[in-house]
Amino acid sequence: MASKEGKEAIHLLMVTLTAQGHLNPMLRLGKRLLDLGLHVTLATTEIGGLRMLKAAAITNTTAAAISGIRLLFFPDGFSLDYNRGANLDHYMESLSKTGPGSLSNLIKQHYQTTKLACIITNPFVSWAADAASENGVPCAMLWIQPCSLYAIYYRFYNKLNQFDTCTIELPGLPLLHADDLPSFLLPSNSFGGVSRMLSDMFRSMKKHKWVLANSFFELEKKAIESMSELCPILPVGPLVPPSLLGQHQALDVGIEIQKPDETSLEWLNKQSPASVIYVSFGSMAVLSAKVTEAIATALKNTNHPFLWVVKRPEVPSADGAGELPLWFEEETKTQGRVVPWSPQTKVLSHPSIACFITHCGWNSVLETLAAGVPVIAYPQWSDQPTNAKLVVDVFKVGLRIKPGPDGVVSNAGIEECINQVLSGPDFEELKKNAAVLKQAAREAVTTAGSSDRNILLFVNEIASSCSSLVGGGSGSGSGDGGSGGPLKMNIIL
Ligand code: UDP
Q: Could you give the 3-state DSSP secondary structure of residue 4?
């Protein structure tokens, strides 16, 4: 299909699940590619598609699009009312079996007469590389965690380094202890299916012609360079709302699956500059009653205003997970606010925010870096312990709450961290480092910045390989850190 300028149009197909932390980085990369003149389609499961259409208030379901990115949906093999998050392992393993066929059908149906130049997957739908290969389409991956995690997993699954010692020394990374490693690599990991999926993927990375990353070179220089001879990774981020990067005119294509409490912003307007503690543990983690009580007590005792996103379990839990202590709302009603979901990126860029108590999901880390807000890290699972290590020892923009001798965090430990970050001896240093990285994030995405150059490199390589592509359908194929109880999660995929 020729474009208006007479040039051959370049069509890309991005594949992702609609978990909040997976979807927006992909949409933002898609928007960047769209702005460069490529045709971009995002494919997700039918159930995820319904959620997206609802969140973005899209009613035209036959030609659905978000800011020019066309949306297509494929079946995942489960009925719409099936609870996919109840057994994550089972769902991911089933999807890895049915997904390639469903995606292949979608490709054959929609790319009969149009050449598909590239399929972009992410690590949680890495099976899409098989559909790409079956259809003779080159495949790229958008790695949605830090490049450091990519390096760790690659080395672990390909048995390139020793991981069975107390301290792990890897090129380009700080010395790691067991509690700094991603939970999927620990003996206590209870998500064997996810580990198997990562293992399969990292042992066959050759299926991906390009690995892009939601990070930026200046942030993870050593880890990125350490992979350059092994299996290169091209950072193209941070893929956060443009307004967080000072690009106030640019449209954000990200969508929020849950409805944010916008009145939080009005409340923030009434607070003093750099006074509010923002607390959120992302879209999945539901904290135990013990940890919730420790945070509640610490917030009350510090006497700072706070905005706390409290995630309650889908089904109320007998052990009180995710429930605030009974005394809390009454005793802190003039001090802070509790909401089920906040407009986080707007919150972080609000001048009244002083620090962010976070689980260190990678999107939250990038958002707080882009906003220049210091961090108090309380990681839960997956990449979060390693992200916390990076926040503290590499980016040097925060401190980590450590569990006490009983393995559970205490209110005293949390208060100590808050005091240190807001007024301890390292206060100036943390603020300064956060400001430096905020600026570096902005520079990475401006014209000729490191991420901008990497995107252009990727697009140029796709464009130059386009002439040799065949059309779609041709078939020319080639551990839980101190959580005070079992970790509960609301996983929405
Ligand atoms: N988020 C939000 N409001 C909230 C909590 C989270 O908008 O109240 C967004 C947050 O800005 C981030 C995403 O949800 O973009 C969470 O992704 P992250 O990788 O930090 O954690 P996950 O949810 O995957 O554990």
A: coil
